[in-house]
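Hi R.,

As promised on Friday, here is the backbone we talked about, encoded as structure tokens. Could you run it through your design pipeline when you get a chance and send me back a sequence?
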């Protein structure tokens, strides 16, 4: 496992700063409302797309990782993560965990917005004793035609 972690570290360090743009498609009011209901929301302006003040739940956008209809079977790792979600780890026998996120809202998300996400790995640290683990920092910027909507800093643990 140490060799796999060393290889992951080598790959990750080589990709620091490389930006990737991914189109996520159009925000559909029905999907955003379903997300809000699944999140335990009950307020009609979040759960009913026909409500006169319907608003997309603020966390809906950061939950989007792929455009509809979702991933094919070859896009998901055995641990449930997308193969390319954690840079440098695709095809390696390593364990992945989410290590937290910071979300900064810049503008509201609206039904009908066409969303792109720009992603870049910005830091890698080797932590722990023995073989330890890697702590990766990934910056994401979600945009629509009118500009930046949300900025996210995510951390991933690779063991």
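Update: got your reply. Pasting your designed sequence below so it's all in one thread:
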């Amino acid at each position: 496992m140490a060799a796999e972690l060393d290889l992951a570290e080598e790959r990750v360090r080589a990709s620091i700063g490389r930006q990737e743009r991914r189109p996520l498609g159009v925000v559909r009011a029905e999907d955003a409302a379903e997300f809000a209901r699944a999140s335990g929301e009950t307020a009609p302006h979040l759960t009913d797309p026909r409500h006169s003040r319907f608003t997309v739940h603020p966390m809906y956008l950061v939950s989007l990782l792929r455009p509809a209809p979702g991933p094919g079977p070859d896009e998901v790792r055995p641990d449930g993560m997308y193969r390319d979600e954690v840079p440098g780890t695709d095809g390696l026998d390593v364990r992945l965990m989410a290590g937290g996120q910071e979300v900064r809202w810049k503008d509201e998300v609206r039904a009908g917005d066409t969303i792109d996400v720009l992603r870049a790995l910005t830091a890698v640290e080797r932590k722990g004793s023995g073989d330890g683990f890697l702590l990766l920092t990934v910056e994401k910027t979600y945009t629509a035609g009118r500009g930046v909507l949300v900025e996210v800093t995510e951390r991933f643990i690779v063991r």
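One thing I noticed while checking it: The radius of gyration is 17 Å.

Thanks again,
M.
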